[in-house]
Design brief:
The protein is of the alpha/beta class and 113 residues long. It has a domain of 77 residues. 27% of the residues lie in helices and 12% in strands. It contains three helices and five strands, in the order βββαβαβα. The strands form two sheets. A three-stranded parallel β-sheet has the order 3-4-5, with helices on one face. The termini are far apart. The relative contact order is 0.17.
């Protein structure tokens, strides 16, 4: 599958099309994300409100290819530190906390602003 990418300010290129995980939960979510990755998706879209971090984390954990995980957070988590906490701090999250971006996991880049 050929998906165009967008260049980010940090030089990383993120696929313009992401696999949406809305309404996916549990093992169904895990299998759907695994299938999407198998078909060539490298960008998975989720949100704090979906509460499907566990299934997504299980699907992307241990993968050798670089992946992008985008998320949306509740409006009361919009302070800079709260955004990272909402993405990384969910008790049900199995997503790796940090990756170099060259391997498995999610690239979170904090800015010094």
């Amino acid at each position: 599958m050929i998906i165009p990418s967008l260049k980010m300010k940090n030089g990383a290129e993120i696929p313009a099309l992401g696999f949406g995980s809305w309404q996916l939960t549990g093992d169904t979510c895990k299998r759907a994300v695994e299938t999407a990755i198998g078909l060539g998706y490298r960008h998975i879209d989720t949100a704090e409100i979906y509460q499907n971090e566990q299934g997504i984390g299980e699907a992307i954990g241990g993968r050798p290819e670089p992946l992008f995980l985008t998320s949306k957070v509740f409006y009361h988590h919009l302070h800079r530190d709260d955004v990272f906490g909402a993405c990384l701090g969910s008790p049900s999250s199995a997503v790796p906390e940090r990756s170099s971006g060259a391997g498995t996991g999610v690239l979170f880049e904090k800015t010094a602003r």
